[in-house]
Design a protein that fits this description.
Layout: E1 2-7, E2 10-12, E3 18-20, H1 23-41, E4 50-54, E5 58-63, H2 78-101, H3 105-114, H4 118-126, E6 134-138, E7 143-146, H5 153-156, E8 159-169, H6 171-176, E9 179-184, E10 192-196, H7 200-211, E11 216-223, E12 231-241
Parallel strand pairs: 10-12
Antiparallel strand pairs: 1-5, 1-6, 2-3, 4-5, 6-7, 8-9, 8-11, 9-10, 11-12
Length: 250
């Protein structure tokens, strides 16, 4: 039970022997391929007692000794099942990438959640592949091509600018260092932003508005937080007193 791995940097010499033209790339890809198989392998229950062996030509499943004959059942062809899972999941990864490219983060997250977090992990592995293409061929003849995936901003956090209105300033924080913690008081309550303040003029405004306990509107730059994150960490871009008729009640 084996699956042949074909990449663009393994060639045959005149004698018909395989030659790895870029060994560093090969060894890195072998690790990523094995990781892909490990992710799919976890979907099986009751067949955990086997390991994967990655060689120049194939990935083989090595089973611990099991007396299938005494159980009157054939040994499971896990290589075919895992292969089918990989083929299916790679198609879903393509959908995931398209959602992210279009800015459809909700759809991408939902797709990943429906598949128990496998899709984002597989996409990340695909983005690290060194080969221009990677083809897996099962001994049955079925093939699946794995192409390198782009590095998505969602994997590393997309940097954006945003505004928060009617924020309080946590005075003790900014007095100790050039950073301030802001907390919203409007409809989006309990959004907390811990922001570095680099510009001296902004720092003066933060000190003045904070000491006078004024509500402020801020512009900030930060990386998109993970879903359900309780706080934002970033940089303060601008600050001004909120135009709010009940300022004095704060």
């Amino acid at each position: 039970m084996s699956i042949e791995v074909k990449v663009n940097y393994i060639e045959k010499n005149d004698a018909g022997h395989l030659k790895i033209t870029q060994p560093k790339k090969f060894h890195k890809d072998a690790k990523y391929i094995e990781s892909i198989f490990e992710i799919e392998k976890k979907r099986f229950v009751g067949h955990e007692k086997y390991s994967l062996c990655v060689s120049n030509e194939s990935i083989s499943l090595q089973f611990e000794e099991t007396d299938y004959a005494s159980q009157l059942i054939p040994p499971p062809d896990l290589s075919k099942e895992i292969f089918d899972y990989i083929a299916n999941d790679m198609a879903i990864v393509d959908q995931y990438v398209e959602h992210v490219k279009k800015g459809e983060e909700t759809e991408a997250s939902e797709l990943d959640r429906e598949n128990k977090g496998r899709i984002s992990k597989l996409q990340s592995l695909r983005s690290k592949l060194k080969s221009e293409s990677l083809e897996l061929t099962h001994e049955s003849g079925k093939k699946v091509e794995i192409l390198p995936s782009p590095k998505l901003e969602s994997n590393e956090g997309k940097i954006i600018e945003d505004k928060l209105l009617f924020c309080t300033i946590n005075t003790p924080e900014f007095l100790k260092s050039r950073s301030a913690t802001f907390k919203t008081t409007n409809d989006h309550k309990n959004v907390v932003a811990e922001l570095a303040v680099h510009k001296p003029e902004l720092w003066d405004d933060v000190i003045e508005l904070g000491k006078n306990r004024r509500l402020v509107d801020i512009t900030l730059r930060y990386k998109t937080p993970r879903p359900n994150a309780k706080s934002i960490i970033g940089e303060l871009i601008s600050i001004e007193e909120s135009k709010f008729i009940e300022q004095d009640l704060f």
